[in-house]
């Protein structure tokens, strides 16, 4: 997948960006910098904030707003949003009809996999590609997390943008999977929600080795330190910052190289593929993985790493919902 038209990243600029990012990689639990936060209950968090995205974000739980909107006694539920306004990943199948929970076909692999994941693990799942279903924060507040499953380009209108922002500020959970990073390029708040990161390009879809960078987090619990997987291995500009890095890809295992289709040279010795953060009052759990349909359906016997990927996504969703500890 190629990013929409933008100035091409020069090799020199990419090298500088990569070097800066390697330094940032040491900030796995990076503290946020000075700025305002309007939440009197969390007085200490008023000193936390991000000068670029204008919100409280990072790994400090004081950036989370617990407004009491989500009662565990009522159970847990997610909304899967897979609207595409550009290239569409094959694992999404044909575009869905209007409304909430339109019929799914066998070709809607990723959506059906997330529905089954909920059925097997005790949480409800609704799904839609109808942007009007996201237009009201009161609707979104029915869900403990909203999952953007390989959305593309301008997948939200103005009303849905406002609603999503109000939902996150009210303590909602957000999960971005794969091409959620190819979405809403021109909305800085959303870029911040992704961890201050954005998709730039990718090299060949190919096998590689994922390294579990933080095995203490709930979303990586039970994962081996290294596991094989196949994906597109997104290169990122900007590079994620002020986040907890959960998993990386070992670029040395990418035999077809990591240089992207817009000549990004990759991220060298630290190339993240999953991370988490608190953002503007809510929780955000992110992964660039999830290109191949078999990653969502295979039990691991035929598609290397499918079992580990599914575990990572399930635990990430559950932590973003608040079912499990988040980002610690």
- Provide the domain count: 1
> What gross morphology would you assign?
globular
Radius of gyration: 18 Å
- Number of discrete helical segments: 7
**Biggest beta sheet summary:** 10 strands, mixed
According to CATH, what is the class? Answer: Alpha Beta
Oligomer: single chain
The CATH architecture term is: 3-Layer(aba) Sandwich
H/E series, N to C? Answer: HEEHEHEHEHEEEEEEEHH
Pfam family, one: ThuA
Keywords: Signal
InterPro entries: Class_I_gatase-like, ThuA-like
Protein name: ThuA domain-containing protein
Summarize the structure.
With 328 residues, the chain is of the alpha/beta class. Helix content is 21%, strand content 19%. The chain contains seven helices and twelve strands.
Write structural notes for this entry.
This protein has a single domain (11-321), classed as 3-Layer(aba) Sandwich (Rossmann fold). Helix content is 21%, strand content 19%. It has helices spanning 11-25, 109-121, 137-140, 158-169, 188-193, 294-297, 306-321; strands at residues 57-58, 77-81, 124-128, 145-149, 173-177, 199-202, 206-212, 226-231, 234-236, 244-250, 272-279, 282-287. The strands form two sheets. Strands 1, 2, 3, 4, 5, 7, 8, 10, 11 and 12 form a ten-stranded mixed beta sheet that branches. It has a two-stranded antiparallel sheet with strand order 6-9. Strand 2 (77-81), helix 2 and strand 3 form a beta-alpha-beta unit. The protein is globular, with a radius of gyration of 18 Å. Residues 1-46 have low confidence and may be disordered. It comes from Actinomadura montaniterrae. It holds the Pfam family ThuA.
């Amino acid at each position: 997948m190629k990013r929409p038209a933008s100035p091409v990243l020069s090799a020199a600029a990419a090298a500088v960006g990569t070097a800066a990012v390697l330094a940032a990689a040491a900030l796995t639990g990076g503290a946020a910098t000075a700025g305002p936060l309007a939440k009197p209950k969390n007085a200490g968090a008023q000193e936390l904030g991000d000068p670029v995205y204008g919100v409280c974000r990072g790994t400090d739980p004081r950036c989370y707003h617990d407004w009491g909107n989500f009662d565990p006694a009522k159970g847990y539920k997610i909304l899967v949003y897979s609207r595409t306004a550009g290239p569409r990943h094959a694992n999404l199948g044909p575009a869905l009809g209007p409304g909430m929970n339109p019929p799914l076909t066998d070709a809607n692999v990723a959506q059906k996999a997330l529905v089954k994941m909920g059925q097997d693990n005790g949480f409800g799942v609704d799904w839609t590609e109808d942007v009007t279903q996201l237009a009201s924060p009161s609707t979104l507040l029915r869900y403990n997390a909203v999952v953007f499953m390989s959305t593309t380009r301008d997948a939200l209108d103005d009303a849905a943008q406002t609603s999503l922002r109000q939902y996150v500020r009210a303590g909602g959970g957000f999960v971005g999977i794969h091409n959620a990073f190819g979405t809403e390029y021109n909305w800085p708040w959303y870029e911040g929600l992704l961890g201050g990161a954005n998709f730039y390009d990718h090299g060949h879809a190919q096998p590689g080795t994922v390294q579990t960078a933080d095995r203490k987090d709930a979303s990586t619990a039970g994962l081996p330190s290294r596991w094989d997987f196949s994906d597109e291995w997104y290169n990122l500009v900007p590079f994620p910052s002020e986040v907890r890095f959960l998993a990386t890809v070992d670029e040395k295992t990418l035999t077809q190289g990591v240089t992207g289709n817009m000549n990004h040279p990759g991220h060298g010795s630290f190339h993240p593929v999953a991370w988490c953060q608190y953002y503007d009052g809510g929780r955000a759990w992110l992964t660039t993985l999830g290109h191949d349909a078999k990653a969502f359906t295979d039990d691991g016997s035929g598609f290397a790493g499918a079992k580990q990927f599914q575990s990572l996504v399930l635990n990430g969703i559950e932590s973003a919902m608040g079912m499990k500890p988040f980002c610690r």
